[in-house]
């Protein structure tokens, strides 16, 4: 590792945006994860940052003692070099890279590699729980076969603002805002169905990997998961000519916010109720709520979630700055922290 190499970003968001807009080479957006024992997450983090930044990698990667979880974009000409660097790490050798459906989109502005207590915040405190003892991985064909059976339960393990714009037909979609909350909610919902066939799914598989292991640990008998999540399922359906049972968009946690799987629009504008799956963060940065808004309401409200936020955004910059920490929006008081919620 180059000891003089900066191990963090030093540019402003505006500079990063300009740099990305100036790129002429296409990028490939992908994700991967691996549960593994990492004894020194900070040292591993620094090594990853140094080696990946030299390849022009952008994205968001979390590292913990339990493993690594990454969503990133790589210059097309460096994809093979990135794969070689990744696979040079023993426990990452052969890790599947989930290539995004809209792979060439500019999805990230910078490279962020963070050390966290867990790569998926689950709220669990159970030393007897082994995340490696997970449920069965299902191919797209196996998923379709199981979902054709009346006794199969399919469960969306994502947050409600993800499942709002796309889901598997007939899925149980809990109204939760984070993964910590969904584990006990689903367990309670299925408490009397522990002997049923349960198929779980999420974006790329990482949440289901942990959830399936947890439910097996809690006495559920037949727990399986969509291998590689929605991303890999959609790819297999396209490659094998299968009918997709997932409809709508797949929410993604990057600049795109979503990638289309089918042309179905399954959600509605939060302001007028017309069909729309256009998700965005409120343009008022003091609010920044995530919501669904059609093009017509976007023009009316200036990409804001309400008239209050629109009017606030039209104030002079100095007045906005003075009022940001205490202003009241939509009956709720927001500070400068960004709130990601799918409902107004």
Beta-strand residue percentage:
15-25%
Number of domains: 3
Rg, nearest Å: 21 Å
**How many distinct beta strands?**
16
CATH architecture of the largest domain: 3-Layer(aba) Sandwich
Q: Any idea of the CATH class of the largest domain?
A: Alpha Beta
By CATH's scheme, which homologous superfamily of the largest domain applies? Rhodanese-like domain
Helix percentage range:
25-40%
Number of helices: 11
What number is the mean pLDDT?
Answer: 87
- How many angstroms does the end-to-end distance come to? 47 Å
Structural class: alpha/beta
- The helix/strand series, from N terminus to C terminus, equals HEHEEHEEEHEHEHEHEHEEEEHHHEE
**Biggest sheet strand line-up:** 4-1-3-2-5
Q: Biggest sheet, open or closed, and with what strands and sense? A: 5 strands, mixed
Shape: globular
Q: Kindly identify the CATH topology of the largest domain.
A: Oxidized Rhodanese, domain 1
Could you name the ranges where pLDDT drops below 50 across 5 or more consecutive residues?
1-5, 327-344
Keywords: Oxidoreductase, tRNA processing
GO molecular function: oxidoreductase activity, acting on paired donors, with incorporation or reduction of molecular oxygen
Organism: Neolewinella aquimaris
GO biological process, one term: tRNA modification
Question: Care to describe what's here?
Answer:
This is tRNA uridine(34) hydroxylase. By secondary structure, this protein is of the alpha/beta class. It folds into 3 domains: 103 residues, Alpha-Beta Plaits; 113 residues, Rhodanese-like domain (Oxidized Rhodanese, domain 1, 3-Layer(aba) Sandwich), CATH 3.40.250; 55 residues. Helix content is 29%, strand content 21%. The protein has 11 helices and 16 strands. A hairpin with an 8-residue loop joins strand 13 and strand 14. It is globular. The N terminus and C terminus are likely disordered.
